[in-house]
Amino acid sequence: MQGTAGGTVLVAGALGVVGRAALDVYLEDGRWRVIGLSRRQPEEATRAAWISADLLDGERLSAAIAGAGPISHVVFAALQEEASLVSGWTSESQIGRNTLMLRNLLDALRAAGSGLSHLTLLQGTKAYGVHHGHYRMPARESDPRFIASNFYYDQEDLARERAAADGFHVTVLRPQIVCGFALGNPMNAVTALGVYAAICRELGQPLRFPGGPACLQEAVDARLLGRAIKWAGSEPRCRGEIYNIANGDCFSWPNLWPSIARRLGVEPGIAHPFSLAEVMADKGPV
Prior knowledge:
Layout: E1 7-12, H1 17-27, E2 32-38, E3 49-52, H2 58-66, E4 73-76, H3 85-88, H4 92-112, E5 118-122, H5 151-166, E6 169-175, E7 177-179, H6 189-203, E8 207-209, E9 217-221, H7 222-234, E10 242-245, E11 250-251, H8 253-263, E12 268-271, H9 276-279
Parallel strand pairs: 1-2, 1-4, 2-3, 4-5, 5-6, 6-10, 7-9, 8-12
Antiparallel strand pairs: 9-11
Helix pairs in contact: 1-7, 2-4, 4-5
């Protein structure tokens, strides 16, 4: 996945699982000027230029973008979740905030005359209604939208409207479970598993599988997704398109669980469905 290269890319949400991976892939290619955007400064030194700004603060964001120079490509990997993760997925306030974040960034780029030519927008299986129950398998990019509200839909509609008005292109990528590195990220399953295993080991408990019935899942390595993001941003055939992104490997959590436990140095336990959020609520002292 090479494609043509060169320009300036801004990665919004640059300290998340997806944003970090995209940032690293672009930094490996010396033909790109790379800008990271996040509310926080990076924990380690980076060769990327950095903008510390809140996407919900349109005024300060505009001032920061105005001083950033030309920006040809944007990777929008920013996301704000509710305190209650799953219930937040159907929250009107979450839909409004995440749409406003994209709107503020597009407004700032327009006001600065940044010269945007391509926007890569990240979605996921909630675009197919997975958070409302069963959906058609395999999910196809051409499937109709689910009837319920979803910030993915609002963001995509906004992006395509602005693209038509301002003359840039949009590509939408839909990974399923993304595995990678990030600090303080609520969607990072790898970190959650590690913490759960560490607590079980400290308490002398086996690593019980807390999930439900076995079902097939797909996952994608964040580094592979980063390569796909870079390719989609530079490949003319990707303009206006939507792509599901996965490694191609299927798994089920119950079958994978013993290997996860052994890898993390804990004895695997039996399947015992329970809420980790409830059971871990009093484990702070551990």
